Amino acid sequence: MAVRQEPAWGAYVDPPLREKVAVVTGAAKGLGAAITDVLACDGAQIVLAGRDLEALEAHATQLHGEYPERENLVVTCDVTSEADVQTLIGSAVERFGGLDILVNTAGVIGPIETPAQGVSVDDFRAVLDVNVLGTFLPCKFAIPHLIERGGGRIVNIAGTSGLRGYRNRVAYSSSKWAVRGLTRTLALELGPHDITVNTICPNVTHGERMTKIVNEKARRLGRTPQDVYAEFTAQTALGRFIEDSDIAHAVRFLVSAGGRNVTGHDVVVDAGWDV
To answer: Annotated catalytic, 172?
Structure first.
């Protein structure tokens, strides 16, 4: 994860998310870890959810060391399990007395460089289960608590593959289009309760997941990973990949006071790919 450039705790007279409670799925690594880092910096109590208990606890320990004036709760959770997600949200509310922010980052990439006729039903279903059902279920169980709180913020992670068709990534692209539809529908339903619901659409992001995509694409096409990286960056106006921290700062805006009138929209962080 890139080195943060946020102000230290002492830079805030009153951290903007002090006493706010945030649940983040997929919180242990990569994008989820960067998001929890920014939310903790801004003073939120963080509920870290995911399947890798060791990684979750390690990251929670790091957050406590850097931002000790707030608390963390670690909950193991399979976001495709209704029982697990219900326990996650219930544990958050029991520990902290309510819920203000939900950020859904848990996701999988599915088959890479595979035409639709080569994608198995099981693989297609697995991607939709995690990326769509795994976004819907945390929303479903969080919504009553956000309403009870008198308002709140939901941020879902879609992607630029949900803005256009994505050749040879049928399962992943379908799932991200679905996340955008889910988000817009929830924005309409929850607006009367002062709950905003938005997506962030990242383009290619440095990290373990993108390395896997690049390497597999290179292998299947008989090219070098360096060539594939160069092709991806050449497609953007800025000629570069984005960082997990770029997405984290977009989340920071959407859950801030400045984002209170932004709902039902896609915040595209793509270095100028979709222009």
So the answer is: yes
